[in-house]
Write a structure and sequence with these properties.
The complex is a heterodimer of chains A (112) and B (115). With 112 residues, chain A is mostly beta strands. Chain A has no helices and 11 strands. Chains A and B meet through strand 5 and strand 10 of A and strand 5, strand 9 and strand 10 of B.
């Protein structure tokens, strides 16, 4: 079946790195995504990774994919208070459609 | 500005009311979606429209009725809702349905409260 799991909450100090983890069950996923949702707003695509990649870096964001363990992570370097939001992991299944399966979201709280 | 606009942003309705949510995109996208975001639950895909045709109904109760008159507009008609239908309803669009990597753009959502 299709299931995406995330821890619900993460608290980090400003300037530290944040690591948000996600596990998924569908091995046929081709693309995996990280979305950010700020209070009162919709979802904003942060980054994505193709399933044949292990890592993707985009400025302060690093995505790591362990396809064998079906584990995805998002690392935010030098976390800022503006990074406080809910972060959703999502996978696209089955391949060739636009159906996204989302996790429950991880609320990131950044404190000074 | 996300390019996907939803109105109203907030809606309070009684269980006997009929209301509609509107979504509009001028990004030239051909696929549009309704998602439901409830507290402490993953986002749930409700409906998918590709080139104005409904291609997915994720077992949504009939009290939710979508309408897609053209590729730029999507509505969700609501009637005889229940309090448990209170949630954030998110609209999204993407360029080409079925393509491997098609980024979905989301609107800001309509916060619906059923009383």
């Amino acid at each position: 079946g299709e299931d995406v799991e995330q821890s619900l909450f993460l608290s980090v100090r400003e300037g530290d790195s944040s690591v948000i983890n996600c596990t998924y069950t569908d091995s046929s996923s081709t693309y995996l995504y990280w979305y950010k949702q700020e209070p009162g707003a919709g979802l904003q695509l942060l980054t994505y990774i193709f399933s044949n990649m292990d890592m993707k870096q985009d400025q302060r964001l690093t995505v790591l994919l362990n396809k064998k363990d079906k584990h995805l992570s998002l690392r935010i370097a030098d976390t800022q208070t503006g990074d406080s939001a809910i972060y959703f992991c999502a996978e696209k299944v089955p391949p060739g459609t636009d159906k996204l399966i989302f996790g429950t979201g991880t609320r990131l709280q950044v404190f000074p | 500005e996300t390019g996907v606009t939803q109105t109203p942003r907030h809606l309070v309705m009684g269980m006997t009311n009929k209301k509609s949510l509107k979504c509009e995109q001028h990004l030239g996208h051909n696929a549009m979606y309704w998602y439901k975001q409830s507290a402490k639950k993953p986002l749930e895909l409700m409906f998918v429209y590709n080139f104005k045709e409904q291609t997915e109904n994720n077992s949504v109760p009939s009290r939710f009725s979508p309408e897609c008159p053209n590729s730029s507009h999507l509505f969700l008609h609501l009637h005889t809702l229940q309090p448990e239908d209170s949630a954030l309803y998110l609209c999204a669009s993407s360029l080409t349905p079925g393509q491997m990597n098609t980024e979905a753009f989301f609107g800001q959502g309509t916060r619906l409260t059923v009383v």
